[in-house]
Model the fold of this input.
Amino acid sequence: MSNSSFLRPSTLLLTGMPGMAGGNMWIAMPFCCMYLISILGNSTVLLVIKAERSLHKPMYLFLSMLAVAELGVSLSTLPTVLSVLLFDSREIGFDACLTQMFFIHCFSIMDSGVLWAMAFDRFVAIYSPLQYASVLTNPRIGLIGLGLTVRSVSVSIPLPILLRRLPFCRSHVLAHSFCLHPNLIQLPCAHVEVNSMYGLFALLATFGLDSLSIVLSYVMIIKTVLSIASKRERLKALNTCVSHICAVLIYYIPMIGLSMVHRFGKHASPLIHVLMANIYLLVPPVLNPIVYSVKTKPIHRGICKLLTPKWH
Done:
């Protein structure tokens, strides 16, 4: 086999919805609506938190970080998803694909980390309400945000670097309309054990630790709540966690489903793979602003104030 066959591909081919080539325009309409809701919803949450000084508290500062991470995920996938569905433009440069993969995984890791920080925030607020303001000060929240950002970037950087060293001599067709690491490591014609092992390490060191920390936080929260004598106070304490619990479920259920499909569903329909990947990346940024706008009264009031004309 000639050396030219082992050159890095200049372009890769993205995949739309398998078996639905004739209806791409109809499929694109709900995707456009989801992206619009995601961008407007998360941007509105950010504007409300910035505008209302009463919301400059740990819970809402972490919520603003979550909105930034979810905006990043949406904006990372939007160009290729809509170009495939609207214009049937399936080609993407190899370096552009690696760049998109980096940002998707970076913002996804950030998303997971912020959900852990929000669980820790709820634990401190319920376990030690009198020390809440002194424990979660603005400088400490800033350090947590910086730490989560550094972690996301440092864990994501090796992914494209490790892929660039590999020869690509197999199919250059990706299984999705965006670039994901589990999909890209199936394309090289060399051993990918290092890539696969690093991907597993990154998964366990970020999503694994975050999910474990969230579970432990809620175990401590439930233990603390059960020690409260008043039933009304117990319900009030738990009610402050409802929005976050919804956000955790909205994020982790699709992620677990996608991981299961990648690991054990190799013979499943390609449509299943595509749908699970799109649900994982699109649904949380769409639903979380809605959940927080409906279930969190200060956010709800802030949005109403933002949208209501001053003369009303």
Q: What stands out?
A: The two ends are 74 Å apart (CA to CA). Residues 1-5 have pLDDT under 50 and may be disordered. The first strand starts at residue 11 and ends at 13. DSSP finds twelve helices and two strands in the chain.
